[in-house]
Amino acid sequence: MPATKTDNMLSSLRLGVIERLALSFWAGTLPEDVDRIPLLMRPRGSEIMSRCCIYKDRAILRERLRAAMGFRLEDETDDSIPLRTYAEEALERKEPNWPILTVCDIACQGCMRARYYVTDACQGCVARSCIGSCRFGAISFSRGRSTIDPEKCRNCGM
User: Fold this and answer.
1) Hey, which of 3-17, 45-59, 143-157 has the most confident mean pLDDT?
2) Distance CA 119, CA 145 (A)
3) What is the pLDDT of residues 53-66, one digit of tens each?
4) Strand partners, 145
5) Among 101, 112, 36, 37, which residue's Cα sits nearest to residue 75?
6) Rounded distance, CA 67 to CA 127, Å?
């Protein structure tokens, strides 16, 4: 299947975030540089990706940077925390944060969140491979069939 223009833009954005993080990390200046990355990637007068304004583009870049440093976006409680604080915490971390999959809600414009559900084809098998395949603990077994907790489900498709 050929890549679309949107795929290429998203890939370029994703690679740009990773490249700038890596360059700052290897230069030993990650905490000092990280707050400026959204501004460098979307300077005044630059073409807006597909959002309403440059400020939303920068906010999305900030979220992508947090995710690339290993933080779950759903756990954010204070938008005023500088990226430098996250970078310092990431550099001290010895183990990855689990679960790694995260969703950037502010980047989704009108996207309907996928909703997975158990069909009538569920026969309540003994193996229950569906439960074993879910890394988020969203699938449980009750009343003779599997059920999915939408609060825990990360829509990973597993």
Assistant:
1) 143-157
2) 10
3) 888 888 889 999 99
4) 142
5) 101
6) 34
Question: What gap in Å lies between CA 146 and CA 142, rounded to an integer?
Answer: 6
**Alpha-carbon distance 145 to 82, whole Å?**
46
How many CB atoms neighbour CB 17 within 10 A? 22
Longest Cα pair distance anywhere in the chain, in angstroms? Answer: 60
Residues in the chain: 158
- Which of 37, 99, 109 lies closest to 74, judged by CA? 99
Phi and psi of 107, rounded to 5°?
A: -80, -15
3-state SS class at 158: coil
Q: Tell which residue, 152, 128, 127, has the closest CA to residue 141.
A: 128
Cα within 13 Å of Cα(63), Cβ side: 20
Question: Quick one: average pLDDT of 137-155?
Answer: 85
One DSSP character per residue, 43-83 reads: -TTPPP-SSSSHHHHHHHHHHHHHHHTT--GGG---TTS-H
DSSP per residue over 93-156, as a string? --S--S------GGG-SSPPPP-----TT----SS-HHHHH-TTS-EEEETTEEEE-TTT----
- Of 103, 104, 111, 101, the C-alpha closest to 134 is 101
